[in-house]
From TrEMBL:
This is Glycosyltransferase RgtA/B/C/D-like domain-containing protein. GO terms for cellular component: plasma membrane. The chain crosses the membrane at residues 68-86, 92-111, 118-136, 148-176, 183-204, 230-250, 257-276, 282-302, 309-330. GO terms for molecular function: pentosyltransferase activity. It comes from Planotetraspora kaengkrachanensis. InterPro entries: LipidA_mod_glycosyltrf_83, RgtA/B/C-like. The lineage of its organism: Bacteria, Bacillati, Actinomycetota, Actinomycetes, Streptosporangiales. Pfam families: PMT_2. It is found in: Cell membrane. GO terms for biological process: lipopolysaccharide biosynthetic process; response to iron(III) ion. It is a multi-pass membrane protein. Residues 60-200 form the Glycosyltransferase RgtA/B/C/D-like domain. Keywords: Cell membrane, Glycosyltransferase, Membrane, Transferase, Transmembrane, Transmembrane helix. It comes from the Bacteria.
Amino acid sequence: MWLPALAALAIGGWGITVPSLWRDESVSAVVARSPLSYMRQLMGEIDAVHALYYLLLRPFAAFGGSEFLLRLPSLIAFVATAYGIAVLGRRLVGPMAGLYGGLLYALLPMASRYAQEVRSYAIVSFVAVLATWLLLNALDSPSRWRYVAYAASVAVLGWFHLYALLLVGVHAVAVWTARPRRILPWVLAVAGAGIILLPLVAVASGQRDTQLFWLHPPGFEDLTAFLEEIAGNAAAAVVLLALAACGVWWSRRTPIVALWAFAPILASFLISQVYPVYDPRYVLFVVPAIALLAGIGVHAVTTSLRGHIAVPIIAFALVGALTFSAHVAIRQPASRPDDLRSLSAVLGAEQRPGDGVLYVPQRYRLFVSVYGEPFQKLTDLTNAPGTYEPRTAAQLTAAAAGLDRVWLVAPPVTPRNIGDPRFVELRRTFNLVSSRSFGYTRLALYVRKGR
């Protein structure tokens, strides 16, 4: 059972500090390093759904907050998930099915990528595995404390990511079909978890428009892209799905794994047609189930061929070969949506004493300041003095009166940010000298006209 964990540790630790932290990771790191008073304010305004993760991250951020330390909780969760898959597979089918499933999970590029990310998604996957294991324990050997433990795991799952509660629907079907007499204690356990989650739901429901305004209804091509993202490319996805299909047939008497692998994706897709909630990261918690199904499939084919050792060797060699290029790609320095390390290096090399900086929109301050030293040397023109409100155009003009150079940190140029009053005012009195993109973040230098 430890072999998948060791494989996950080796693969997840490979190149963990090479990719630059990107905007989502920057937010995590900056908030985790901030005073609790600032964290409370942010949670109240926009980011309550990540409160538990930010609290968990604080000790890692306190000890220097290096890229390795910040990403370490996700790596630990990745290793624990691989181990948990092996344990689940042994319980449901047999030790070899668990071994194969855990090893396949460690080989999947999408799981490996989020093992190297300062966000909660790898932890959500682990808690999903843990909750499923605790449910099986409660169903097989019912006791009050087993259901309490399961309820606690569901509450933790929701506090790490509310949309992961789609797993509870899978558990409901599994309980109803496998142990209908256990439905009442299960309902009570879920109700208890719901009470613990009520404060988060109440706050987060009012923050959706500011937190998830960018989501859109997905199409069928998004589902195809998700499967390719899991495996790294189309060929690897075909092999993975073929093995998972064998696993569905072999484990038809334990349908909880198949439901867990596909039902949350379908539910998220259908809900998103009217109320967008779908993003590949938000359904990452199904990947352990897909890996377990594929592992069961390897075991099924091996058993059908009288335990021929060539079957798992060929299967893992094929998956490893097909996913290798994706693993290499996600470990490149600029492989994330933003290359904030390079942005910070350029700013540090080219800034001059007395330069100013303007973040449009102002949330870009959080997005880029994980590599904060160069930004600390600049005069921040973004907020009105003593407030968290952005300056007006007139306030910006007054604040920049003594400055000859201003650095703009913003998204790529769009009609939306071109019309921002501060951006309009900046262009009125300053000339654009240079503009460089570091992924989805742009760094531009403006020099006062006539200078």
